[in-house]
Specification:
Layout: E1 3-6, E2 13-14, H1 16-29, H2 37-43, H3 48-54, H4 65-78, E3 83-84, H5 88-97, E4 101-109, H6 110-119, E5 128-132, H7 141-150, E6 158-162, H8 165-174, E7 177-181, H9 188-192, E8 198-199
Parallel strand pairs: 1-4, 1-6, 4-5, 6-7, 7-8
Antiparallel strand pairs: 2-3
C-alpha cells in the first residue's frame, strides 16, 4: 500500500451534528418533519438531491439549487464549531511517517474544501486535494479518476477511506480498495452491505493489519 485517498466530511471531520442541525433548519422553514441523528444516518445518500427528496423536499415547488445553496451558507456559518474526528492528526502523521502518499477526495466544492482543511490545520498532510466544481454534491467519480491520472497513482496499491456507501462506489469505479468508517454519515448496517471492511473509527486504522 503506497497511497491513501481520504474522504473529508464524516471521515476526518466530525460534522454530523452540524449537518443534522443545518438540514433541520431547512426542513423547519418548509414545515417539514425534522430528523434526528439516527434517521439522518439511515437516509443520507448521494446524490444529495435524492436524500433531500427522501426527507420531504418537493422540487416541483422549488429548484433543488435553492435549498442546496441555503444549506451551504448555513453549514459554513457553523463550521468553526466542528472538530476533527478523534485521532485524526495521529493517524495522518502515522501514515506520513510510513511514507504513504495521502490525498483528499471530497464531494465538497473545491475552494471550500481547501479552506476547511486549512482551517483545521491538516492541509499540509496531503499531496493534493480534489473537490467538486459546485455545491451540488453529485458524485466524486470523475474527480477521483482525474486524481489517479494526474498524480500517477497506482490503483492496485491504493486504499480509499470514507464513511458512506458512495465512497465504496467511487473506490470501485476508480479500481482501488476501500475501507469504511462507521462513525460518520451512514450507519454501520448500511456500510456492511457493501462488503468492504468496516471499522468503528479511524483510530482503529493504527491497529489494523490491512496495510502493512
Amino acid at each position: 500500500m503506497t497511497t491513501i485517498i481520504w474522504d473529508w466530511n464524516g471521515t476526518l471531520l466530525n460534522d454530523i451534528d452540524l449537518c443534522v442541525n443545518t438540514i433541520n433548519k431547512l426542513l423547519g422553514t418548509r414545515n417539514l418533519e425534522l430528523i434526528n441523528h439516527s434517521v439522518y444516518r439511515e437516509v443520507f445518500s448521494f446524490p444529495v438531491k435524492d436524500y433531500y427528496q427522501t426527507i420531504g423536499f418537493d422540487f416541483t415547488k422549488e429548484d433543488f439549487e435553492t435549498p442546496a445553496h441555503q444549506y451551504i451558507d448555513l453549514y459554513y456559518q457553523g463550521f468553526d464549531g466542528c472538530s476533527l474526528q478523534n485521532e485524526t492528526e495521529k493517524v495522518l502523521d502515522y501514515f506520513r511517517q510510513k511514507n504513504v502518499r495521502q490525498f483528499v477526495l471530497s464531494a465538497m466544492e473545491h475552494g471550500m474544501l481547501e479552506k476547511t482543511l486549512k482551517a483545521k490545520g491538516i492541509f499540509e498532510y496531503f499531496e493534493s486535494v480534489a473537490g467538486l466544481t459546485d455545491h451540488l454534491a453529485v458524485s466524486k467519480v470523475d474527480q477521483g479518476k482525474l486524481l489517479i491520472g494526474k498524480f500517477n497513482i497506482d490503483p492496485t496499491e491504493t486504499w480509499m477511506i470514507g464513511d458512506t456507501m458512495h465512497d465504496f462506489e467511487v473506490a470501485t469505479e476508480m479500481g482501488v480498495k476501500c475501507i469504511l468508517i462507521a462513525d460518520g454519515h451512514q450507519s454501520e448496517e448500511r456500510l456492511l452491505k457493501t462488503g468492504a471492511p468496516v471499522l468503528q473509527n479511524i483510530g482503529q486504522l493504527l491497529s489494523s493489519n490491512l496495510f502493512f
